[in-house]
Amino acid sequence: MRIFRSLASVTVAVALVMSLPYEAMPHARVxxxxxxxxxxxxxxxxxxxxxxxxxxxxxxxxxxxDAVSLHVECARxxxxxxxGPPVDTGPAxxxxxxxxxxxxxxxxxxxxxxx
Length: 115
Fold this sequence. Notes:
Keywords: Signal. By secondary structure, this protein is mainly beta. 15% of the residues lie in helices and 41% in strands. It has 1 helix and 7 strands; from the N terminus they run H-E-E-E-E-E-E-E. The strands form 2 sheets. Strands 3, 4, 5 and 7 form a 4-stranded antiparallel β-sheet that branches. Strand 1 and strand 2 (53-60) form a beta hairpin.
C-alpha cells in the first residue's frame, strides 16, 4: 500500500511537470539584439626548413597588431632549442623570422600574441 502511494505521488508530480507549457520552463536568458562580430586576429605564417636552417614568413591581413615568435626544437638532445623574440606584425605587414640548429631540426612553430 505504501509503495503504491509513493509511486502514485511521483507519477502525479512527473505528469504535472510534463504538462507545463514551454514558456513556463526555465531557460537561459539571452539579451535581444545582434551578437557582436568576432574580432579577427592572427598573422598567417609559412615555415620552410632547409637543412638546419628555418625561415618563416608571417603576413597580417587584419587591423590589429600581432606579435609573432619563432620557436625551433632541434632533433639532437645536445642541440640548443631556440625561442625567438616577439616581432610586432602590423596591419598588412609581412615579417621574416629565422632560426637554426647545429644539426637536424625536430619541429618548428609560431606563437601569436595580441598587442
